[in-house]
Write the structure tokens for this entry.
Amino acid sequence: MGNEDPRASRARVPRRRINSDYRLMRSPSAGLVEDSYSAHFHLRLSGSTTDCALPAEGLRMSLEFSHQPVLLNEVVRVFADLSSGVIIDCTLGGAGHASTILASNLEIKILGIDQDVEALEHARSVFARWPGRAEATYGRFDQVKNIHGGSTFHSDPVVGVLFDLGVSSYQFDAPERGFSYRFDAPLDMRMDRTGVAVTGAEYLNGAAEKELTSLFKENGETRFAARIARNIVANRPIVSTFQLAEVVKEAIPAFARRSGGHPAKRVFQAVRTAVNSELPVLAVALDESMQLLAPGGRIAVISYQSGEDRIVKSVFRDASTGGCSCPPGLPCGCGAIPTFRLLNRGAIKPGNDEMAINPRSASARMRVAEKLSNPQGGGANVA
Ligand SMILES: C[S@@+](CC[C@H](N)C(=O)[O-])C[C@H]1O[C@@H](n2cnc3c(N)ncnc32)[C@H](O)[C@@H]1O
């Protein structure tokens, strides 16, 4: 997630607060158009709400969460028929998915994890509606085993795990968080602002030119990665979102600026991914959470970037084949033992209806796997 489109700032309108309602389909919220990242809760700017307030460009804007959980119907369906136990929501955010699961399956408890204390604060207020059934914990999701072990629900079977990767709209649309080139702000970009990670500015001012070139290439800026990296280094220190956007724009030849959205889109996404170590922690977190799952338990992962989806696909493939190395089409003779089965052949994508209501869902890809109750050798397991 984290791409953006300049149309978004023009199209943003106040929207209804729906966070704790159980709605499998939400009513359309008019036109917040930002490209493909998981826009689950949006800032509502108004003078009357008091959830949170920050100064930006001379204005005081009150911020209120509202949710657009992506693939909500599909997520609820994955967990609908699970028997009693706990589902770990590793990317709790504003508890949009979590609260809907709590409302839809009364046997289920939720252990939510997030590294953003503002999101946790909001999630806890949502969870107040289900006393004893939900807990929101600060932490990074590659610590899921420890977090589960220290939680109130440590002795409940883990029947489900959910990842809804990337940043939320709340983070993305708050000018002071520095995720967006739509607002001039210090280049922060940390999901966790408790002081652990370096900011976007610190990262860009400390990284070698070669490292930046590779980062931009890996994140899809193949043609001009080296030029952009060179211009960033030449203009250090980089301190603000607008400065970075300008430096990127300058590095891209005029003819190429006319297509493909805002020229800084991919660079902002790449820097955010690096600042928050988004890809390195994912494989560890998937592995830990799949170990925690009880037999018959399910894991669903929604990703928004090809890099994330590649990791999910590879971890799920290994689990569902046991790492089988036999030639395709022949019976497995290598002794590999699959431990999961895939519940879908490909990824689940949002339908046209959802994309029309929430354009930010467009790049979402969900993969789902179920832990086998009785693992046996013999090859790939696909439902
Ligand atoms: C896309 S939002 C989730 C929205 C949520 N599903 C909802 O319906 O409201 C992703 C959330 O995951 C959190 N997050 C991302 N990476 C994380 C990590 N490695 N550890 C913990 N939280 C993380 C972000 O801070 C953000 O709040």
